[in-house]
Amino acid sequence: MGIITAVEPQKKKKTRVNLYIDGRFFCGLEHITLLAAGLKEGDEADEGVLSALIADSETAVAFEKTVKLVSARLRTEREIARYLKEKGYPPLVSERVIEKLYAYRYLDDGLYAKSFAAAYRKKYGDRYLSRALKQKGLDDAVIAEALEEIGEGREEDAVRAAEKYARTHAALDRGKLYAYLTRRGFLPEEIKNAVRKVSEDADGDGEEYFFD
Predict the structure, then answer these.
(1) What is the mean pLDDT of residues 103-110?
(2) Exposure winner among 11, 101, 163, 201, fewest CB in 10 A?
(3) Closest Cα partner for 58 from 39, 37, 33?
């Protein structure tokens, strides 16, 4: 393939170097990756070795960027894969980064699902949460486990959502409240119970209001 004729530090990123083969620029690499391979000026360049070094170097850079990303908040595997693709990293680098994230416990779809469900349970019902988590790329088993963990008290969550709606509306329209809770993804029995409870509080006479 040729001879490594120069290894020059990059001006903007001190951790990276520019590699020249036969006097021509070949690629940029993390300096530590090149040192680990034992390559230096004057060595013969092997295409297979350099291809592997580029993948290692790019993986190191991509991993550092994604660690910063997941440190800000939890992300799903699909979100990480999309982020790396948008940054222009090839599939091999993306796969390696995701593997490292799992290995270092920076990535955990099960934990993400449970945290998401716990954070939004007071606002949304299981149907909404299930759809939202599905859109984030989580599989059915992970979603089911997360919803099971918040299973207790879902009727109370629906009541709280209904009460919040009632506080922000001067006149209580039961039909609109029912539709609102439906959009929020609560189950029919949870909605009926919540509408009944809020209606009783609004009427002040204990009258029950049923829906078909």
Answers:
(1) 92
(2) 11
(3) 33
Tokens of 10: 């990059």
Residue 147: count other Cβ atoms within 10 Å of its Cβ.
20
What's the pLDDT score for residue 211?
A: 40
**Environment class of residue 207 by beta-carbon count within 10 Å: exposed (0-12), middle (13-18) or buried (19+)?**
exposed
Counting every residue written for the chain, the total comes to 212
Across the beta sheet with 24-30, the strand order is 24-30, 16-21, 2-9, 44-45
- pLDDT one-digit tens code per residue, 8-28: 988 888 888 888 989 988 888
Condensed to tens digits (0 to 9), the pLDDT of residues 42-96 reads: 888 888 888 888 888 889 889 999 999 999 888 999 999 999 988 888 888 899 9
Nearest to 119 by CA among 101, 140, 138, 146: 146
CA distances (Å), origin 172, targets 52, 83, 86, 164, 195 = 66, 44, 47, 12, 10
Please count the other Cβ atoms lying within 10 Å of the Cβ belonging to residue 103.
9
Integer Cα distance of 6 and 21 in angstroms: 7
The 3-state DSSP class for residue 24 equals strand
